[in-house]
Amino acid sequence: MGQPGWIRVDTVHQGDLDGQKGVYHINMVDSVLQWEVVVCVEKISERYLAPVLEEALGMFPFVILGFHSDNGSEFINEVVAKLLNKLLIKQTKSRSGRTNDNALVEGKNGSVIRKHMGYWHIEQRHAPLINEFYRDYFNVYLNFHWPCGFATVTVDKKGKRRKKYETYQTPYERFRSLKKSDRYLREGVTFEVLDKVAAYKTDNEFAQMMQKAKDKLFVTAQSPCVFPSPSRGEGSPAGQSCAKTQGRVRVTSAKDGSASGGKVLRDGPLTRALSAKRTACWTAGRGLSPRGRGIKNSLWS
Questions:
Q1: pTM of this structure
Q2: What's 183's DSSP letter?
């Protein structure tokens, strides 16, 4: 195992609706531990992004050494470069057109953010609420209660590399398994504090807490939604929209507003109906299984 602190970064956009942009999720994953921090911003301009990036980097309990992103202008600019220089963090970027250069975080975009936040449009005004959910529940769940697969790499006589995923640990368990892991901790952070965070609830108990908080968040953010089209994968004019009517959710066509097969989702609150429809879209169109399993240093002090 190598030294933690080499961060992979990417942006996930939460869809457009009627010409209006949705929120943006900033996904940051350590390449050694798979320690993940997700934050949300209204826009990806320098004004909004710079303070959130500094805040997110402070959420990692270990020293950050590198910051790797794609060629997007939200990260490759003077403001971000100045911030990283101030924090003594080396900045690198992927080659143009080579998404595999940032494969780890690209995979996490789908398996983590899209899985939990979906594809539909969420208005920008809800970014502070989403950030609060990420800080208090989601990031803690991902790093202390959600196991990740870690590959064992072997090289045969011909030099061919083979990967086997036989080790599954939470990022925190992986961190603790490093030799002399305390030397990687950032100033003011101790394993005593981190152990208390990990032991606060069992994995299942905290997963239930996180899910309840997410349901509450989605009820609050009851903006019009666009479901992914099974054929196209993303919300589009060919997709379907939803409208809440008298406690029910009716699936309608985005083109003519007519009911899609006259189907009405009656059971449960809005979020349950949205979750059921999203699962149906993913299972039918993508072949995916519906199964699943303060800031800066003050966060750990």
A1: 0.74
A2: G
Q: What are the residues facing 162 on neighbouring strands?
A: 154
Each residue's pLDDT tens digit, 148-183: 999 999 999 888 999 999 999 999 999 999 999 999
Q: Please name the residue that has the structure tokens 């449960």.
A: 268
Q: How many helices and strands, by DSSP H and E, does the chain display?
A: 10, 13
For 191-201, the pLDDT digits (tens) are 999 999 999 99
What residues contact 177, with CB distance under 8 A and at least 6 apart?
1, 169
Encoded tokens for 162: 């083979």
Look at residues 70, 62, 55, 53 and name the one whose alpha carbon lies nearest to residue 109.
Answer: 70
The owner of tokens 């003077």 is: 78
Tell which residue, 274, 282, 258, 264, has the closest CA to residue 224: 274
87: left (phi over 0), alpha (psi -120 to 50) or beta: alpha
154 CB-near residues (< 8 Å, 6+ apart): 161, 162, 164
Q: What are phi and psi of 222, to 5 degrees?
A: -90, 60
Q: Which tens digits make up the pLDDT trace of 27-60?
A: 999 999 999 999 999 998 888 888 899 999 999 9
